[in-house]
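User: I'm putting together a small comparison set for a docking exercise, and I want a reference complex before I start. The sequence is below, and the ligand is 6-phosphogluconic acid. Could you produce the 3D structure with the ligand included, as structure tokens?
Assistant: Of course. I'll restate your input first, then give the structure tokens for the complex.
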Amino acid sequence: MLVRIEQYKDLYVLSRHAAEYVCTTALESVEKYGYFALALSGGTTPGILYECLARSPFSETIPWNRTHLFWGDERCVPPDHPDSNFFMAHRALISKISIPNKNIHRMKGEMNSPGEAAEAYEQELRHFFNSCDGDYSSVHPFHLILLGVGRDGHTASLFPYDDVLNEETRWAVAVRAPQGVSPAWRITLTLPVINRAGRILFLVSGSEKREVVRAILKDQKSEETLPAARVRAGNVMWVLDFEL
Ligand code: 6PG
């Protein structure tokens, strides 16, 4: 696993560099494989990145007609709910670019049963990647997955001590967030599919996360308690707006 860490002076500068990384990966993926499979992260940190991608030069450089957008996780709310990760990405990015609707692979958090929504998403993932070229898509389905980190070390909706951390076969599951975290039910990609991504980009903003990021990156035992420490894809980049 190759890990790179880049530290920037603030979230705006961080987001601009992250946009350049996404754009470069998109161009390389389309050149090599004919498409770009990108999984977006939720929370608040990536909002400025998404706004960057919706503006020049990225909006006209990224081949949106060959780009497929997925999500790393989603809250079990309607897509127009303010807590929806799709809602945030749609407002900041999707509503501002010309990307075919068929290229938007939304987790349907509004479904009555979170478990059925997760199963439906897994079917959509497997159908899409099975229809792609050769063995690349089966080995490295996502070219790039964006991830954030919570102060408890969670990433996507993989929370500490949750059984989902030991999932070995399913690519998407329903999880109940820890007590006090709202919305309670989520759909999340699992570690087996996250760890097969070609590249992972962690975006972390706020010095209050310094200690958890230090533990993830430097404490050999952190993966017992910090889910983000279990992300071990081949090529992991961290962009931070604080000194480690
Ligand atoms: C979510 C995210 C979650 C997020 C972290 C960081 O749905 O909330 O996927 O994993 O990335 O909680 O969130 P912030 O960017 O808001 O700090």
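The helical segments are 11-33, 47-53, 58-61, 85-92, 114-130, 136-139, 191-194, 210-218. Residues 41-45, 72-73, 85, 148-150, 154-157 surround 6-phosphogluconic acid (CB under 6 Å).
User: Thanks, that's exactly what I needed.
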